[in-house]
Predict the 3D structure of the following.
Amino acid sequence: MRDMHCHILPGVDDGASDMQESLAMFAAARSAGVTSITCTPHCREPYFDYLGMWKAFRAFEHEVRAIDASFPLQMGFEVNYDKLMELGLGWAQRLHFDGTNEFLLELSVGASPSRFGDYERTIFELQGMGYDVIIAHPERYTAIQSNLDLARELTHMGCKLQASADFVKGGRFGRERRPAIKMLKEGLYTYIASDAHYAGHYGYLRQTMAKWADSLD
């Protein structure tokens, strides 16, 4: 099982604060059944430090190799839409998942439905550049909570949707459980990821995969 969205790198964002916590998260991930990890630190304010994040990945990779020399690790980013617009689409070549064409895009939680037109244009541009766009935790976006047709449209555009496993307890903002279950039952999701910021989040991943893995696209 691949965990393709987590904040496991030490000291770079609001996830693991240091290497000790990163390794505790790694142990929890393996205990939950994770067999490969894509590390996805935030590409958004106030956290983004491209070179520092890569340095943290190499340090984490070194520690993991001492535990399990063959465990698959990959570097990526959770790319906030507004930050991408600030950086410019040319940055996409540095922000996709290393070694693949996958691109994890985070939309704005409180964006109005009208803003989805801007998102669609950017998504089409990314797809035209050859990227496979994955939308992070659509169950968090208030516009999608109010209108699942927006999520359906994203999948019709060729996007893949990723649920964050903490929806089982209501999610980050307490409103994610109901829309996530609706989207799972409809088969709109391709991935469930931990979106882990600390070791305990992997318990939610275990619970969610045990119940909902068969509902993935």
